[in-house]
Protein backbone atom coordinates (compact mmCIF):
# COMPACT_ATOMS: atom_id res chain seq x y z
CA UNK A 1 0.00 0.00 0.00
CA UNK A 2 1.26 3.47 -0.89
CA UNK A 3 2.27 5.79 1.95
CA UNK A 4 -0.40 8.31 2.88
CA UNK A 5 0.43 11.95 3.50
CA UNK A 6 -1.96 13.86 5.75
CA UNK A 7 -2.01 17.62 5.26
CA UNK A 8 -3.02 20.07 7.99
CA UNK A 9 -3.18 23.78 8.60
CA UNK A 10 -0.57 23.17 11.29
CA UNK A 11 1.03 20.18 12.94
CA UNK A 12 2.42 20.54 16.46
CA UNK A 13 4.85 17.64 16.60
CA UNK A 14 6.24 17.83 20.18
CA UNK A 15 9.58 17.09 18.50
CA UNK A 16 12.01 19.81 19.67
CA UNK A 17 14.08 19.39 16.50
CA UNK A 18 11.07 20.11 14.28
CA UNK A 19 8.30 21.67 16.40
CA UNK A 20 5.90 22.49 13.54
CA UNK A 21 5.03 21.08 10.15
CA UNK A 22 2.19 20.95 7.65
CA UNK A 23 2.34 17.34 6.46
CA UNK A 24 2.89 13.93 8.00
CA UNK A 25 3.52 10.75 6.02
CA UNK A 26 2.30 7.39 7.31
CA UNK A 27 3.11 3.84 6.24
CA UNK A 28 2.31 0.55 7.95
CA UNK A 29 0.86 2.38 10.94
CA UNK A 30 4.00 4.39 11.65
CA UNK A 31 5.32 7.86 10.91
CA UNK A 32 7.36 7.79 7.71
CA UNK A 33 8.10 11.50 7.50
CA UNK A 34 7.15 14.92 8.87
CA UNK A 35 7.63 18.32 7.25
CA UNK A 36 6.24 20.22 4.29
CA UNK A 37 4.86 18.57 1.17
CA UNK A 38 8.05 19.59 -0.65
CA UNK A 39 10.35 17.97 1.92
CA UNK A 40 8.36 14.74 1.69
CA UNK A 41 8.53 14.59 -2.09
CA UNK A 42 11.48 12.21 -1.99
CA UNK A 43 9.28 9.53 -0.42
CA UNK A 44 8.07 8.73 -3.94
CA UNK A 45 4.52 7.90 -4.94
CA UNK A 46 2.23 8.75 -2.01
CA UNK A 47 -1.48 9.27 -1.53
CA UNK A 48 -2.26 12.82 -0.43
CA UNK A 49 -5.09 12.96 2.12
CA UNK A 50 -6.40 16.50 2.58
CA UNK A 51 -9.40 15.80 4.83
CA UNK A 52 -7.60 17.61 7.68
CA UNK A 53 -6.26 20.48 5.58
CA UNK A 54 -8.02 23.09 7.72
CA UNK A 55 -7.32 21.33 11.05
CA UNK A 56 -4.52 21.28 13.59
CA UNK A 57 -2.82 17.95 14.27
CA UNK A 58 -1.10 17.01 17.52
CA UNK A 59 0.30 13.69 18.70
CA UNK A 60 -2.45 11.51 20.10
CA UNK A 61 -3.00 12.43 23.72
CA UNK A 62 -1.51 10.11 26.33
CA UNK A 63 -3.51 9.69 29.54
CA UNK A 64 -0.87 8.67 32.06
CA UNK A 65 -3.24 7.95 34.94
CA UNK A 66 -6.76 6.75 34.35
CA UNK A 67 -8.69 3.55 34.89
CA UNK A 68 -10.65 1.23 32.64
CA UNK A 69 -13.16 1.45 35.48
CA UNK A 70 -14.36 4.49 33.50
CA UNK A 71 -15.77 1.96 31.05
CA UNK A 72 -17.36 -0.11 33.82
CA UNK A 73 -19.09 2.48 35.97
CA UNK A 74 -21.31 3.84 33.22
CA UNK A 75 -23.28 0.60 33.51
CA UNK A 76 -24.47 2.04 36.82
CA UNK A 77 -26.25 5.34 37.52
CA UNK A 78 -24.11 8.42 38.06
CA UNK A 79 -24.72 10.30 41.33
CA UNK A 80 -22.09 13.05 41.37
CA UNK A 81 -22.18 16.70 42.35
CA UNK A 82 -21.10 18.00 38.93
CA UNK A 83 -22.99 17.30 35.67
CA UNK A 84 -21.25 14.64 33.59
CA UNK A 85 -21.55 13.26 30.07
CA UNK A 86 -21.76 9.51 29.54
CA UNK A 87 -20.24 7.57 26.59
CA UNK A 88 -23.47 7.94 24.60
CA UNK A 89 -23.41 11.72 24.89
CA UNK A 90 -26.17 11.99 27.50
CA UNK A 91 -25.49 14.53 30.25
CA UNK A 92 -26.41 13.41 33.75
CA UNK A 93 -27.33 16.34 36.03
CA UNK A 94 -25.37 17.12 39.16
CA UNK A 95 -27.00 16.19 42.47
CA UNK A 96 -26.40 19.08 44.81
CA UNK A 97 -28.28 18.01 47.95
CA UNK A 98 -29.16 14.80 49.79
CA UNK A 99 -32.88 15.05 48.96
CA UNK A 100 -32.09 15.19 45.26
CA UNK A 101 -29.74 12.23 45.60
CA UNK A 102 -32.46 10.21 47.31
CA UNK A 103 -35.00 11.02 44.59
CA UNK A 104 -32.47 10.02 41.96
CA UNK A 105 -31.77 6.70 43.67
CA UNK A 106 -35.50 5.93 43.93
CA UNK A 107 -35.87 6.60 40.21
CA UNK A 108 -33.01 4.19 39.48
CA UNK A 109 -34.42 1.54 41.81
CA UNK A 110 -37.65 1.57 39.84
CA UNK A 111 -35.71 0.41 36.78
CA UNK A 112 -34.30 -2.71 38.51
CA UNK A 113 -35.85 -6.05 39.26
CA UNK A 114 -36.45 -6.88 42.91
CA UNK A 115 -33.34 -9.07 43.28
CA UNK A 116 -30.78 -6.60 41.92
CA UNK A 117 -28.79 -4.41 44.34
CA UNK A 118 -28.56 -0.74 43.47
CA UNK A 119 -25.03 0.51 42.82
CA UNK A 120 -24.47 4.20 42.07
CA UNK A 121 -21.23 6.13 41.78
CA UNK A 122 -19.65 9.58 41.78
CA UNK A 123 -21.08 10.86 45.06
CA UNK A 124 -18.78 13.31 46.86
CA UNK A 125 -19.59 13.97 50.54
CA UNK A 126 -17.15 16.88 50.76
CA UNK A 127 -19.73 19.02 48.94
CA UNK A 128 -22.31 18.41 51.66
CA UNK A 129 -20.77 20.17 54.67
CA UNK A 130 -23.86 20.12 56.86
CA UNK A 131 -23.87 16.35 57.34
CA UNK A 132 -22.43 13.11 55.99
CA UNK A 133 -24.51 10.69 53.98
CA UNK A 134 -25.18 7.64 56.16
CA UNK A 135 -27.13 4.38 56.24
CA UNK A 136 -30.28 6.13 57.44
CA UNK A 137 -30.36 8.33 54.33
CA UNK A 138 -30.10 5.25 52.12
CA UNK A 139 -32.56 3.26 54.23
CA UNK A 140 -35.07 6.03 53.50
CA UNK A 141 -34.69 5.06 49.85
CA UNK A 142 -34.97 1.31 50.53
CA UNK A 143 -34.07 -0.56 53.71
CA UNK A 144 -34.53 -4.07 52.28
CA UNK A 145 -32.61 -3.98 49.04
CA UNK A 146 -28.79 -3.54 49.24
CA UNK A 147 -27.71 -0.06 48.14
CA UNK A 148 -24.09 0.92 47.49
CA UNK A 149 -23.05 4.49 46.67
CA UNK A 150 -19.41 4.64 45.55
CA UNK A 151 -17.74 7.97 46.26
CA UNK A 152 -16.09 10.02 43.53
CA UNK A 153 -12.61 9.46 44.90
CA UNK A 154 -13.04 5.64 44.66
CA UNK A 155 -11.57 5.35 48.17
CA UNK A 156 -14.89 5.32 50.00
CA UNK A 157 -18.50 4.25 49.75
CA UNK A 158 -21.72 4.53 51.72
CA UNK A 159 -24.09 1.56 52.03
CA UNK A 160 -27.49 0.98 53.60
CA UNK A 161 -28.46 -1.33 56.45
CA UNK A 162 -29.39 -4.20 54.15
CA UNK A 163 -25.91 -4.14 52.63
CA UNK A 164 -24.24 -3.98 56.04
CA UNK A 165 -26.21 -7.02 57.20
CA UNK A 166 -25.58 -8.97 54.01
CA UNK A 167 -21.83 -8.33 54.14
CA UNK A 168 -21.47 -9.10 57.84
CA UNK A 169 -20.08 -5.64 58.58
CA UNK A 170 -23.02 -4.89 60.85
CA UNK A 171 -21.43 -7.14 63.44
CA UNK A 172 -17.78 -6.37 62.58
CA UNK A 173 -17.49 -2.66 63.20
CA UNK A 174 -13.89 -3.14 64.39
CA UNK A 175 -12.61 -3.62 60.82
CA UNK A 176 -10.40 -0.68 59.82
CA UNK A 177 -12.31 1.74 57.64
CA UNK A 178 -15.78 0.95 59.01
CA UNK A 179 -17.02 4.32 60.31
CA UNK A 180 -19.43 4.23 63.23
CA UNK A 181 -22.03 6.34 64.97
CA UNK A 182 -21.30 7.55 68.50
CA UNK A 183 -22.95 4.40 69.87
CA UNK A 184 -20.48 2.15 68.00
CA UNK A 185 -22.86 0.95 65.27
CA UNK A 186 -21.59 1.16 61.67
CA UNK A 187 -23.02 4.30 60.08
CA UNK A 188 -22.73 2.95 56.53
CA UNK A 189 -19.59 4.83 55.47
CA UNK A 190 -16.68 2.58 54.50
CA UNK A 191 -13.19 3.92 53.88
CA UNK A 192 -10.37 2.43 51.83
CA UNK A 193 -9.78 -0.98 50.37
CA UNK A 194 -10.17 -3.45 53.26
CA UNK A 195 -13.65 -2.26 54.21
CA UNK A 196 -14.85 -1.73 50.65
CA UNK A 197 -13.67 -5.12 49.45
CA UNK A 198 -15.96 -6.75 52.01
CA UNK A 199 -18.85 -5.26 50.00
CA UNK A 200 -17.42 -6.24 46.63
CA UNK A 201 -16.74 -9.77 47.83
CA UNK A 202 -20.31 -10.12 49.13
CA UNK A 203 -21.70 -8.97 45.79
CA UNK A 204 -19.17 -11.16 43.93
CA UNK A 205 -18.17 -8.03 42.05
CA UNK A 206 -14.60 -7.10 41.10
CA UNK A 207 -15.01 -3.75 39.38
CA UNK A 208 -11.31 -3.45 38.62
CA UNK A 209 -11.13 -6.90 37.03
CA UNK A 210 -14.24 -6.02 35.01
CA UNK A 211 -12.16 -3.25 33.52
CA UNK A 212 -10.52 -5.91 31.37
CA UNK A 213 -13.74 -7.13 29.75
CA UNK A 214 -14.16 -6.52 26.03
CA UNK A 215 -17.28 -4.36 26.32
CA UNK A 216 -15.67 -2.26 29.03
CA UNK A 217 -12.49 -1.72 27.02
CA UNK A 218 -14.48 -0.81 23.91
CA UNK A 219 -16.43 1.78 25.90
CA UNK A 220 -13.23 3.09 27.47
CA UNK A 221 -11.58 3.44 24.06
CA UNK A 222 -14.65 5.24 22.68
CA UNK A 223 -14.54 7.77 25.51
CA UNK A 224 -10.86 8.34 24.85
CA UNK A 225 -11.39 8.68 21.11
CA UNK A 226 -13.92 11.44 21.63
CA UNK A 227 -11.22 13.47 23.39
CA UNK A 228 -8.22 12.68 21.19
CA UNK A 229 -6.67 10.09 23.51
CA UNK A 230 -4.79 7.32 21.72
CA UNK A 231 -2.85 5.83 24.66
CA UNK A 232 -4.75 4.98 27.84
CA UNK A 233 -3.64 3.51 31.12
CA UNK A 234 -5.46 1.22 33.50
CA UNK A 235 -3.55 2.12 36.59
CA UNK A 236 -4.98 -0.49 38.95
CA UNK A 237 -5.48 -3.85 37.27
CA UNK A 238 -5.37 -7.24 39.03
CA UNK A 239 -3.99 -8.87 35.84
CA UNK A 240 -6.12 -11.97 36.25
CA UNK A 241 -5.55 -14.55 33.56
CA UNK A 242 -9.00 -14.06 32.06
CA UNK A 243 -8.45 -10.31 32.17
CA UNK A 244 -5.09 -10.51 30.42
CA UNK A 245 -6.52 -12.73 27.70
CA UNK A 246 -9.45 -10.34 27.21
CA UNK A 247 -7.11 -7.34 26.94
CA UNK A 248 -5.01 -9.18 24.38
CA UNK A 249 -8.01 -10.08 22.22
CA UNK A 250 -9.60 -6.64 22.45
CA UNK A 251 -6.48 -4.57 21.82
CA UNK A 252 -5.60 -6.77 18.86
CA UNK A 253 -8.68 -5.51 17.03
CA UNK A 254 -8.18 -2.70 14.53
CA UNK A 255 -11.57 -1.19 15.38
CA UNK A 256 -10.60 -0.53 19.02
CA UNK A 257 -8.95 2.92 18.86
CA UNK A 258 -6.46 2.80 21.70
CA UNK A 259 -3.17 1.58 23.00
CA UNK A 260 -3.41 0.36 26.58
CA UNK A 261 -0.87 0.26 29.41
CA UNK A 262 -2.30 -1.60 32.43
CA UNK A 263 -0.48 -1.44 35.77
CA UNK A 264 -0.65 -4.46 38.06
CA UNK A 265 -2.03 -3.70 41.52
CA UNK A 266 0.85 -4.64 43.81
CA UNK A 267 -1.27 -5.12 46.94
CA UNK A 268 -3.21 -7.89 45.19
CA UNK A 269 -0.18 -10.21 45.37
CA UNK A 270 2.74 -11.08 47.57
CA UNK A 271 5.89 -9.46 46.14
CA UNK A 272 7.16 -12.84 44.92
CA UNK A 273 3.94 -13.68 43.10
CA UNK A 274 3.44 -10.14 41.83
CA UNK A 275 6.92 -9.92 40.33
CA UNK A 276 6.46 -13.28 38.63
CA UNK A 277 3.04 -12.22 37.35
CA UNK A 278 4.04 -8.89 35.85
CA UNK A 279 7.22 -10.29 34.29
CA UNK A 280 5.21 -13.09 32.71
CA UNK A 281 2.63 -10.66 31.36
CA UNK A 282 5.33 -8.38 30.00
CA UNK A 283 6.26 -11.13 27.53
CA UNK A 284 2.72 -10.94 26.16
CA UNK A 285 2.92 -7.25 25.22
CA UNK A 286 2.15 -6.03 21.72
CA UNK A 287 2.09 -2.75 19.81
CA UNK A 288 -1.30 -1.88 21.33
CA UNK A 289 -0.92 -3.51 24.74
CA UNK A 290 2.04 -2.80 27.00
CA UNK A 291 2.45 -4.72 30.25
CA UNK A 292 5.16 -4.10 32.83
CA UNK A 293 3.87 -1.28 35.05
CA UNK A 294 3.19 -1.82 38.76
CA UNK A 295 0.75 0.29 40.83
CA UNK A 296 1.19 0.72 44.57
CA UNK A 297 -1.49 2.34 46.74
CA UNK A 298 -0.22 4.12 49.85
CA UNK A 299 -2.70 6.58 51.36
CA UNK A 300 -6.19 7.69 50.39
CA UNK A 301 -7.76 10.95 49.24
CA UNK A 302 -7.41 14.45 50.73
CA UNK A 303 -11.04 15.41 50.13
CA UNK A 304 -12.07 12.07 51.60
CA UNK A 305 -9.94 12.76 54.70
CA UNK A 306 -8.08 9.48 54.12
CA UNK A 307 -4.82 10.95 52.77
CA UNK A 308 -1.82 11.06 55.11
CA UNK A 309 -0.70 14.62 55.84
CA UNK A 310 2.37 15.84 57.68
CA UNK A 311 2.10 18.36 60.52
CA UNK A 312 -0.18 20.27 61.06
CA UNK A 313 -2.50 17.79 59.35
CA UNK A 314 -5.93 18.79 58.11
CA UNK A 315 -6.71 22.50 58.19
CA UNK A 316 -10.06 21.95 59.93
CA UNK A 317 -8.57 19.68 62.58
CA UNK A 318 -9.89 16.39 61.23
CA UNK A 319 -7.83 13.31 62.16
CA UNK A 320 -5.13 12.11 59.82
CA UNK A 321 -5.93 9.65 57.06
CA UNK A 322 -5.23 5.97 56.48
CA UNK A 323 -2.53 3.78 55.01
CA UNK A 324 -3.66 1.05 52.62
CA UNK A 325 -0.92 -1.14 54.08
CA UNK A 326 1.54 -0.80 56.93
CA UNK A 327 4.35 1.65 56.07
CA UNK A 328 6.94 -1.10 56.59
CA UNK A 329 5.13 -3.31 54.08
CA UNK A 330 4.88 -0.48 51.57
CA UNK A 331 8.63 0.14 51.86
CA UNK A 332 9.37 -3.55 51.39
CA UNK A 333 7.20 -3.65 48.26
CA UNK A 334 9.13 -0.71 46.78
CA UNK A 335 12.41 -2.48 47.51
CA UNK A 336 11.32 -5.78 46.02
CA UNK A 337 9.92 -4.42 42.77
CA UNK A 338 12.81 -2.00 42.35
CA UNK A 339 15.29 -4.83 42.83
CA UNK A 340 13.42 -6.83 40.18
CA UNK A 341 13.97 -4.01 37.67
CA UNK A 342 10.31 -3.03 37.43
CA UNK A 343 8.80 0.46 37.28
CA UNK A 344 6.49 1.56 40.09
CA UNK A 345 3.62 4.03 39.81
CA UNK A 346 2.88 5.03 43.38
CA UNK A 347 -0.31 6.67 44.63
CA UNK A 348 0.71 9.49 46.99
CA UNK A 349 -1.90 12.13 47.74
CA UNK A 350 -0.65 13.53 51.04
CA UNK A 351 2.85 14.81 51.79
CA UNK A 352 3.38 12.17 54.50
CA UNK A 353 2.83 9.49 51.84
CA UNK A 354 5.22 11.34 49.53
CA UNK A 355 7.86 11.37 52.31
CA UNK A 356 7.47 7.65 52.99
CA UNK A 357 7.85 6.77 49.33
CA UNK A 358 10.83 9.07 48.75
CA UNK A 359 12.50 7.39 51.73
CA UNK A 360 11.70 3.98 50.24
CA UNK A 361 12.99 4.87 46.78
CA UNK A 362 16.14 6.45 48.21
CA UNK A 363 16.98 3.40 50.29
CA UNK A 364 16.20 1.09 47.34
CA UNK A 365 18.60 3.05 45.15
CA UNK A 366 21.30 2.88 47.81
CA UNK A 367 20.93 -0.89 47.99
CA UNK A 368 20.39 -1.56 44.29
CA UNK A 369 21.51 1.39 42.12
CA UNK A 370 19.51 1.68 38.90
CA UNK A 371 19.73 4.23 36.12
CA UNK A 372 16.53 5.49 34.50
CA UNK A 373 14.15 3.68 36.83
CA UNK A 374 11.38 6.28 36.24
CA UNK A 375 9.47 5.41 39.39
CA UNK A 376 6.54 7.82 39.29
CA UNK A 377 4.65 9.39 42.16
CA UNK A 378 1.03 9.72 41.13
CA UNK A 379 -1.18 12.63 42.23
CA UNK A 380 1.33 14.12 44.74
CA UNK A 381 -1.18 16.87 45.30
CA UNK A 382 0.62 18.20 48.34
CA UNK A 383 4.39 17.95 48.01
CA UNK A 384 6.81 20.36 49.67
CA UNK A 385 9.66 22.15 47.93
CA UNK A 386 12.15 20.12 49.96
CA UNK A 387 10.45 16.95 48.69
CA UNK A 388 10.55 18.26 45.13
CA UNK A 389 14.32 18.66 45.42
CA UNK A 390 14.63 15.11 46.77
CA UNK A 391 12.52 13.81 43.88
CA UNK A 392 14.78 15.61 41.40
CA UNK A 393 17.90 14.15 43.00
CA UNK A 394 16.44 10.62 43.02
CA UNK A 395 15.28 10.69 39.37
CA UNK A 396 11.63 10.33 40.34
CA UNK A 397 8.87 11.35 37.92
CA UNK A 398 5.76 13.21 39.11
CA UNK A 399 2.38 12.79 37.42
CA UNK A 400 0.14 15.41 39.01
CA UNK A 401 -3.64 15.41 39.25
CA UNK A 402 -4.20 18.83 37.67
CA UNK A 403 -7.99 18.39 37.41
CA UNK A 404 -8.03 18.33 41.18
CA UNK A 405 -7.52 22.11 41.23
CA UNK A 406 -10.90 22.70 39.60
CA UNK A 407 -12.98 20.04 41.31
CA UNK A 408 -11.66 20.28 44.89
CA UNK A 409 -9.56 23.45 45.05
CA UNK A 410 -12.29 25.41 46.82
CA UNK A 411 -12.73 22.67 49.39
CA UNK A 412 -9.00 22.52 50.08
CA UNK A 413 -8.75 26.29 50.40
CA UNK A 414 -11.45 26.51 53.07
CA UNK A 415 -11.48 23.13 54.80
CA UNK A 416 -8.70 20.60 54.27
CA UNK A 417 -5.48 22.53 53.56
CA UNK A 418 -5.87 26.30 53.96
CA UNK A 419 -4.39 29.16 51.97
CA UNK A 420 -0.62 28.57 51.92
CA UNK A 421 -0.66 24.89 51.11
CA UNK A 422 -3.20 25.51 48.35
CA UNK A 423 -0.68 27.74 46.59
CA UNK A 424 1.38 24.61 45.98
CA UNK A 425 -1.37 22.21 45.07
CA UNK A 426 0.00 20.32 42.05
CA UNK A 427 3.19 22.48 41.92
CA UNK A 428 3.92 21.82 38.27
CA UNK A 429 5.96 24.95 37.56
CA UNK A 430 8.26 24.37 40.55
CA UNK A 431 8.81 20.75 39.53
CA UNK A 432 9.52 21.85 35.97
CA UNK A 433 12.07 24.44 37.14
CA UNK A 434 13.90 21.65 38.98
CA UNK A 435 14.03 19.51 35.84
CA UNK A 436 11.76 16.80 37.26
CA UNK A 437 9.97 14.78 34.55
CA UNK A 438 6.32 15.75 34.97
CA UNK A 439 2.95 14.89 33.49
CA UNK A 440 -0.68 15.69 34.33
CA UNK A 441 -3.70 13.43 34.44
CA UNK A 442 -7.44 13.15 35.05
CA UNK A 443 -7.66 9.91 37.09
CA UNK A 444 -10.88 8.95 35.27
CA UNK A 445 -13.44 7.99 36.42
CA UNK A 446 -12.63 10.25 39.40
CA UNK A 447 -12.84 13.20 36.98
CA UNK A 448 -13.80 13.12 33.29
CA UNK A 449 -11.34 11.88 30.69
CA UNK A 450 -10.55 15.06 28.73
CA UNK A 451 -6.85 15.97 28.28
CA UNK A 452 -7.49 19.48 26.97
CA UNK A 453 -9.37 20.20 30.19
CA UNK A 454 -6.41 18.80 32.14
CA UNK A 455 -4.10 21.13 30.19
CA UNK A 456 -6.43 24.05 30.97
CA UNK A 457 -6.26 23.22 34.68
CA UNK A 458 -2.44 23.25 34.57
CA UNK A 459 -2.49 26.71 32.97
CA UNK A 460 -5.48 28.43 34.59
CA UNK A 461 -5.26 26.78 38.05
CA UNK A 462 -8.85 27.89 38.53
CA UNK A 463 -11.32 26.34 40.94
CA UNK A 464 -14.98 25.67 40.21
CA UNK A 465 -15.80 28.93 42.02
CA UNK A 466 -13.33 30.88 39.89
CA UNK A 467 -10.53 31.39 42.43
CA UNK A 468 -6.95 31.02 41.13
CA UNK A 469 -4.78 28.88 43.40
CA UNK A 470 -1.01 29.21 43.13
CA UNK A 471 -0.61 31.47 40.08
CA UNK A 472 3.17 31.06 40.37
CA UNK A 473 2.73 27.35 39.66
CA UNK A 474 0.92 27.93 36.36
CA UNK A 475 2.37 26.66 33.09
CA UNK A 476 2.11 28.05 29.58
CA UNK A 477 -0.32 26.40 27.16
CA UNK A 478 2.56 25.11 25.06
CA UNK A 479 4.21 23.54 28.11
CA UNK A 480 0.92 22.06 29.27
CA UNK A 481 0.40 20.34 25.91
CA UNK A 482 3.60 18.38 26.49
CA UNK A 483 2.20 17.13 29.81
CA UNK A 484 -0.56 15.26 27.96
CA UNK A 485 1.59 13.99 25.09
CA UNK A 486 5.34 13.35 25.22
CA UNK A 487 5.80 13.90 28.97
CA UNK A 488 3.03 11.48 29.88
CA UNK A 489 4.54 8.94 27.48
CA UNK A 490 7.88 9.36 29.24
CA UNK A 491 6.41 8.40 32.62
CA UNK A 492 5.09 5.20 31.01
CA UNK A 493 8.42 4.41 29.31
CA UNK A 494 6.61 4.69 25.98
CA UNK A 495 8.19 7.92 24.72
CA UNK A 496 10.17 5.96 22.12
CA UNK A 497 6.86 4.93 20.54
CA UNK A 498 4.20 7.58 21.22
CA UNK A 499 3.83 11.15 22.44
CA UNK A 500 5.37 12.99 19.50
CA UNK A 501 5.20 12.85 15.72
CA UNK A 502 8.61 11.60 14.67
CA UNK A 503 9.84 9.08 12.11
CA UNK A 504 9.44 5.53 13.38
CA UNK A 505 6.83 6.25 16.04
CA UNK A 506 3.26 5.03 15.83
CA UNK A 507 1.03 7.19 13.65
CA UNK A 508 -1.23 8.28 16.51
CA UNK A 509 -2.75 11.75 16.23
CA UNK A 510 -5.38 14.04 17.71
CA UNK A 511 -7.02 16.25 15.08
CA UNK A 512 -8.36 19.54 16.45
CA UNK A 513 -10.47 22.29 14.93
CA UNK A 514 -8.20 24.97 16.41
CA UNK A 515 -4.64 25.51 17.63
CA UNK A 516 -4.70 25.39 21.45
CA UNK A 517 -2.07 28.14 21.57
CA UNK A 518 -4.24 30.59 19.62
CA UNK A 519 -7.60 30.40 21.38
CA UNK A 520 -8.48 32.40 24.51
CA UNK A 521 -7.62 30.42 27.61
CA UNK A 522 -11.26 30.05 28.60
CA UNK A 523 -11.87 28.11 25.36
CA UNK A 524 -8.87 25.78 25.57
CA UNK A 525 -10.81 22.95 27.20
CA UNK A 526 -13.69 23.14 24.72
CA UNK A 527 -11.70 22.89 21.47
CA UNK A 528 -13.43 20.27 19.34
CA UNK A 529 -11.56 17.05 18.60
CA UNK A 530 -12.53 16.35 14.97
CA UNK A 531 -10.88 12.96 14.71
CA UNK A 532 -8.45 10.57 16.31
CA UNK A 533 -5.87 8.58 14.37
CA UNK A 534 -4.45 5.33 15.78
CA UNK A 535 -1.77 3.55 13.79
CA UNK A 536 -2.73 5.57 10.72
CA UNK A 537 -6.39 4.54 10.92
CA UNK A 538 -8.80 7.48 11.14
CA UNK A 539 -11.65 7.49 13.65
CA UNK A 540 -13.92 10.46 13.00
CA UNK A 541 -15.82 12.08 15.83
CA UNK A 542 -19.41 12.71 14.82
From TrEMBL:
<dbReference type="InterPro" id="IPR033932">
    <property type="entry name" value="YtcJ-like"/>
</dbReference>
<protein>
    <submittedName>
        <fullName>Amidohydrolase</fullName>
    </submittedName>
</protein>
<dbReference type="InterPro" id="IPR011059">
    <property type="entry name" value="Metal-dep_hydrolase_composite"/>
</dbReference>
<dbReference type="InterPro" id="IPR013108">
    <property type="entry name" value="Amidohydro_3"/>
</dbReference>
<feature type="domain" description="Amidohydrolase 3">
    <location>
        <begin position="54"/>
        <end position="538"/>
    </location>
</feature>
<dbReference type="Pfam" id="PF07969">
    <property type="entry name" value="Amidohydro_3"/>
</dbReference>
<dbReference type="InterPro" id="IPR032466">
    <property type="entry name" value="Metal_Hydrolase"/>
</dbReference>
